[in-house]
Design a protein that fits this description.
alpha+beta, 2 domains, two-stranded parallel sheet, 14 helices, 8 strands
Length: about 300
């Protein structure tokens, strides 16, 4: 007898999550091979950390328990004011980084759900990951029916598009898996054709080392060794999501925006100019990125990114 998902889903939605699904805690063999091949081909760029902990990533070992199910949660982060504000700027920041740090926010949001699970299933284990566990969150999101994995490698939901964060809860509680959905990218090549660096070199595959997000966040070099078509992007990049019809047309028409105040556009982005950011001292920069996803980069990387677009 499987636990009733209705109650668990209801609690997740009450917490503020927009999407809920369950997958079996098994990484399909095809995905294991794709991940291994991606690393072996050197497509992870300078993300050397990705090659570590592969036993956990592929087989979910070393968690302290053997998971049977994965609860997958999604939370919208697209802000209604983003496009209007950044249309007036000569630089751009990826949408996900313009609010508070999603790692902290999603973990706090999940506390009532985790409390409910632990109280109702006291003999079972529950471990949450928000980019903090080396597990293939997108694979589980696809398997749980949160959406399909698009040609830009992001998870796309038919109703909400792709501007949402993912969080997973691994558990040894056996839950009935929800069903995957059909890939609806069809013949569309908008994301591949729009990528200015060729990072999306073929459908469903990305060369992270060529991605603007990688250049501006993961590459910690003083200067970029190769010319980079960064456009206006100084932190991350949303191009492959911006051109996607599921965001650009359907989600926009339905006015799909976050209701979470912590993910809404920070006031600084509405008022600060490029010069304000370039003239920041190190202390000012540390204070600015504190409590946001942008605290992954240093002030030298930040100014380097601005110099590239100049």
């Amino acid at each position: 007898m499987h636990p009733d998902l209705t109650q668990i889903k209801s609690k997740a939605l009450d917490c503020g999550f927009s999407l809920f699904g369950v997958a079996d805690a098994v990484v399909p063999e095809k995905d294991k091979e794709n991940i291994r091949s991606w690393v072996e081909q050197g497509l992870a760029g300078k993300m050397d950390w990705y090659a570590r902990n592969q036993d956990l990533r592929l087989n979910l070992n070393n968690l302290g328990f053997t998971p049977r199910s994965v609860i997958v949660l999604g939370c919208l982060y697209q802000d209604r004011d983003y496009e209007e504000v950044f249309a007036t700027k000569d630089f751009k920041i990826s949408r996900y980084a313009t609010g508070k740090d999603y790692h902290t926010v999603l973990k706090t949001m999940s506390l009532p759900l985790l409390k409910y699970l632990r109280e109702n299933f006291p003999e079972k284990k529950f471990r949450q990951g928000v980019d903090s566990l080396p597990v293939p969150e997108k694979v589980f999101a696809r398997e749980a029916g949160i959406g399909w994995q698009g040609k830009n490698t992001n998870i796309i939901n038919e109703d909400l598009g792709s501007y949402f964060f993912l969080s997973v809860i691994l558990t040894d509680l056996h839950l009935l898996a929800t069903q995957p959905v059909t890939d609806r990218c069809g013949t569309c090549r908008a994301c591949l054709d729009a990528c200015p660096t060729g990072a999306l070199f073929e459908p469903y595959k990305i060369d992270a080392g060529k991605c603007i997000s990688h250049h501006t966040i993961e590459d910690r070099s003083e200067t970029f060794s190769d010319p980079v078509a960064n456009g206006k992007w100084v932190y991350g990049c949303d191009i492959c999501q911006e051109v996607c019809p599921w965001n650009r047309v359907k989600a926009k028409k339905k006015e799909v925006y976050t209701l979470n105040e912590e993910f809404k556009l920070r006031e600084e982005f509405k008022t600060f100019t490029k010069e304000d950011f370039l003239e920041m001292t190190e202390e000012e920069f540390k204070e600015f990125v504190k409590g946001s996803a942008m605290d992954r980069i240093t002030i030298s990387m930040w100014k380097r990114n601005f110099i590239v677009i100049l």
